[in-house]
Design a protein that fits this description.
Length: 424
Amino acid sequence: MKQVTAVLIGAGLRGDHAYSSYALSHPEEFRVVAVAEPDEKRRKEFGKKHHIPEAMQFDTYEKLLSLEKTADCAMVCTQDHMHYEPVMMALKKGYHVLCEKPMSPNPGEILRMGKMAEKYGRILSICHVLRYSPFFVKLKQLLDEKRIGQLMSVQHIEEVGYWHHAHSFVRGNWRNAEESSPMILQKCCHDMDILLWLVQSKCTRLSSFGTLTYFKEENAPKGAPLRCLDGCVHREECPYYAPAFYLEHPKAVADRLVYAVTEDIRKENVIRALREGPYGRCVFHCDNTVVDHQVVNLEFENEVNVSFVMSAFTKECVRKINLMGTKGQITGNMDEGRIEVYDFVSGNTETIQIHSASTGHSGSDECMMRDFVRQVAEDGKSGGRTAAAASVESHLMALGAEQARLRGCTLDFSAWKEELMESC
Ligand SMILES: NC(=O)c1ccc[n+]([C@@H]2O[C@H](COP(=O)([O-])OP(=O)(O)OC[C@H]3O[C@@H](n4cnc5c(N)ncnc54)[C@H](O)[C@@H]3O)[C@@H](O)[C@H]2O)c1
């Protein structure tokens, strides 16, 4: 296989650690030759790590993409609302593109990105990494083998975890739908996508309910200050009290959440960052707008019905699924890597233990990169699992669910989609 070259747009957590790290572990397959990143420290560190000459380091994607095409592919790893422009520019320049999810919060932009990839005959792969996770790959295989006969119903739960929700969706980068995107898109487009993949049919109708109920002003305990460190008297009984949360909470410590608060994690530095930065705010006094719990019901053309629940109010951060078929039932817990297959005829239950890597989304990030690099090396001659067409569909399912929630209606998804397609 020839070595594939790439340019990176956005050398943040995903662009640097999740995807470009593939170039460091597989240098014979993949090399990053240019980077666009406005944060000087990040840009320089990234450039050094990947031996990128200064002339190929840029502070914005516009500068990088205004040059002649300099690599086989572009990886677009900027924040949610900043994928559309660089993806369109890169496709026009002839790059194959890897784009972070969500493609865009705007349905028209999502459709145009898909059309642009088609027009220029380029790969547009969206980072729906779950399609590469050993857990969902096994579930797909069991369904394809008809181990439970014909699939009839699906119950899927995304337990966000109360600590994870507070960190990312109340205090952090994804708290505000206007700045990032609605929860059902930014967090759950993975779930809509995996459901589309497992059900293997088109979604026809959707309904949804959900609200931001708990993490808001009126639920603040009496006298709670704007910042935890401003003498909050509720610190002993509040699970979100920032200093304890970031320095001692077992889940937050295991997930290294403190690195989002500050890069220098010495205690005095963390305390200073909590006094001044966004992560020291009282969870009831933030500018968050995304829902903290939501349900979506989906009907598919093949008459499979799906019920999906997303909730902040859970102990674990885990996805659980229950697949109900005419000849059996499959239940799965992604975090535990456990799948149980019950057969109605024999009455037997088979337990399957999935062994996943401990790195990036249980090894899915690396599997997805391997597949993307292979596709680019073959110049897009063979399809990929996360191609634009499927991702456009699942993104629209998420935005359709948001429409159904906001309008308080059951959305005729097929008609809504057709209208959108006509208008763009
Ligand atoms: N696939 C997944 O499972 C998954 C998981 C987490 C996050 N994400 C998504 O990945 C994306 C990036 O998330 P992240 O955590 O890496 O964010 P991040 O903030 O760490 O990285 C984004 C980077 O883009 C840079 N940037 C800003 N403006 C730019 C410009 N004009 N040109 C070039 N770079 C620019 C920022 O300086 C930053 O370094 C988001 O859309 C997020 O929703 C996906």
